[in-house]
Automatic annotation (TrEMBL):
It comes from Panicum virgatum (Blackwell switchgrass). This is F-box domain-containing protein. Residues 58-84 have a biased composition (Basic and acidic residues). InterPro entries: F-box-like_dom_sf, F-box_AtFBL13-like, F-box_dom, F-box_dom-containing, LRR_dom_sf, LRR_FXL15/At3g58940/PEG3-like. Residues 178-397 form the F-box/LRR-repeat protein 15/At3g58940/PEG3-like LRR domain. It comes from the Eukaryota. Residues 1-84 are annotated as: Disordered. Residues 85-124 form the F-box domain.
Amino acid sequence: MCCLSPSSPSASATSSRRGQIVASEWPPGPSSGSNPHPEGPPPGAVDTDGEEFGGRPAKRDRPESGRGDAVRTADRPAGDGRDRISDLPDAVLLSVLSFLPLRDAGRTAVLSSRWCGLFDQSLLDFNACQPFPPEEGRGCDWFMHAITDILAARPRVRIRSFRFVMYGRGFDGRLDVVDGWLGALARHGLRELDVDMFYAGPRPTLPESLLKLASLETLKVFNCRFPNAGSAPAPLLPALKILDLSNVDVSEESLQAILCHGTSLESVKLKNITGADKICLRSKSLTRLYGDFGDLKELVVEDAPNLEELVGIGLPSGKAKVKIVFAPKLQMLGYLGISVRPLVLHDTVFDGGIVQLRTLMHSVKTLVIQVPFSEKGYTIFVAQLLKCFPCLEALHVEPDKRSISRRVNVEEWDTENSIQCIEHSISRVVFECFGGEDCQWGFLTFLISMARALKLVKLYCWTGKDWASDQLELLDPKNRASPDAEIQFFRICKPISDLYLCHCCTQRCQKENRVALI
């Protein structure tokens, strides 16, 4: 998330598109007594007689458009003194500025009126990242003073996105300064805000002016305390579409206010949230809700007519009650496990027993479940759960952690009892953390022998190619209900955060961490 610059040669000498290093020299603005947009020519420009001030022959004037004159640059003799960089189009120069530290990018503003305008355009995506490790004299106070001066010097420059990263004490005790930034950014028409107090302790509280950013569409907050939104007038953040909170302290009242009163909210991602024990979702606009939810006591989807994806990764390891009352467009649901009790679908409690007709959820196409191989009766639980989703097309499976670390009793699967989704609609199966244990093989062979519409099986494991080849030989095509189904083994190269595995959302798979074995 954060941009950590190497210690050599200098932390302030490096940058990237994800974060630029602010340094002590930035372009002078009105606050420092100089004009950032001079109307006259810069020092060294030609006068009306064609001679440079001082009597020396003047350099040939170059067009401000950046396209050059009638003579091609390639045709000019080397060493003719022409500024070939300024011949480049604005788009190319802006791309170059985006790779520079903010200090160096700002210095270009004194070259000419064109370069000054280019620097203003580069602030469209304002990346402010505190130097790490901090250089002498460039701590939190200096960093915040730099941002304040830049915003004050350019009150009319458009800023579309603002990314702000700090370390150490963060802005603890200087809430008024950040409040002033948010007020200025609101006037700039800010659309995206990313705040990360990396390794800041204690977590600083964001000012309530955050909730007044009427044009804000994307909000990402990491390692902070969310402002109190319970008493704020509705609608809150009326243009907000994407909300991403990670390691954030937020009260249940504030979280509820954002979810219910965000009239444009489409996607919410919550990770390691503290302060809220219950989520009761009532939103006409929300389409995706992701999170770990391991510490929740209750998750209720009361009225979500456009909700399509609901994924709580930590639900099987917690003790949350899950209740889905009204979500007619829900297509992806997970993680469900034997510990998610009670599970209420519509108005019926699912307890692993007989499935009633009104319990069925025909809209769900993708289901993520944690199979409790270490629990007695896991075959009955999984079979009855799958009956609640008769139109299922993709099944993602994860074994419970206890079955991976120790031997468990293997139960026989009932092949006589019909399960509609397995026999008629499931076309894809994804098995995470596949280790080849007998209990896992039993479930896999059961699915393959029953699924007539199956087209693809993906098995993610920690072992090598030889092991995968041996496992594949055990899956005899003669025992498959769909002989043409393709079976693929993948090796996970390094641990991946649970929140970003394949089946959490459409962008979740990190392909660089997965290698095809066969």
